[in-house]
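Is this the right way to post structure tokens for a design question? Let me know if I should format differently. Anyway, here goes:
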């Protein structure tokens, strides 16, 4: 929670509202920032970060309620989990290894990237630091109480302090899989392997595994 700062002077109601207006204007950028994974694959009119967060929030509410989780907490996590991308950008696992040659890029993007453990850890730590600093920059003009709440929610998704945080982190990947399947449905040349590898290696929640099976039956007309 370091680097969070309280304002020295007590703000008037007008100052408080101005801070919120400025904050919400910055948040509006998420409606126009396109998800980088889709841009790399030349998806026409790809979803924005806000598009993703909206459906994730709905999925968190409905599926979280089905599991008996704290849906209020889940909704908050879904809404803040990608706020950092306003300044940090939407990073992908391919960014460090993406070749300049377009043909080689296309081939690389068909597979889920593999790294040595030390390189994987380094990439994760660099990404996490950049995103954390971005989040602090975004919320720096809010009250300390609001800053702490947003940071705690974001860290919970990152580190899984609660069962809600662990569920939301997995659900985030499932929503991403659903979006990839929708693009695949429009273009059967869309490479689905990276998403199936990712969910196979990261999803263990029983309800989400059932949901993934339902997705498979919907888009492939058979069991995964």
């Amino acid at each position: 929670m370091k680097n969070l700062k309280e304002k020295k002077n007590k703000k008037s109601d007008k100052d408080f509202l101005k801070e919120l207006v400025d904050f919400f204007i910055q948040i509006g950028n998420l409606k126009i920032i396109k998800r980088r994974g889709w841009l790399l694959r030349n998806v026409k009119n790809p979803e924005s970060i806000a598009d993703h967060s909206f459906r994730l929030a709905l999925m968190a509410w409905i599926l979280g309620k089905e599991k008996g989780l704290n849906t209020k907490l889940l909704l908050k996590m879904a809404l803040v989990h990608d706020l950092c991308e306003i300044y940090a950008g939407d990073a992908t696992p391919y960014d460090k290894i993406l070749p300049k040659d377009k043909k080689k890029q296309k081939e690389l993007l068909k597979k889920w990237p593999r790294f040595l453990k030390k390189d994987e850890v380094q990439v994760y730590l660099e990404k996490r630091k950049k995103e954390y600093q971005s989040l602090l920059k975004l919320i720096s003009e809010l009250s300390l109480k609001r800053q702490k709440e947003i940071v705690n929610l974001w860290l919970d998704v990152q580190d899984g302090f609660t069962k809600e945080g662990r569920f939301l982190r997995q659900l985030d990947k499932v929503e991403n899989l659903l979006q990839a399947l929708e693009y695949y449905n429009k273009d059967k040349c869309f490479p689905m392997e990276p998403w199936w590898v990712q969910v196979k290696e990261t999803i263990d929640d029983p309800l989400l595994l059932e949901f993934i099976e339902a997705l498979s039956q919907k888009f492939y007309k058979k069991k995964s």
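Format looks fine. Someone answered above. Worth noting: The domain at 13-220 is CATH 1.10.3210.10 (Hypothetical protein af1432). The two ends are 42 Å apart (CA to CA).
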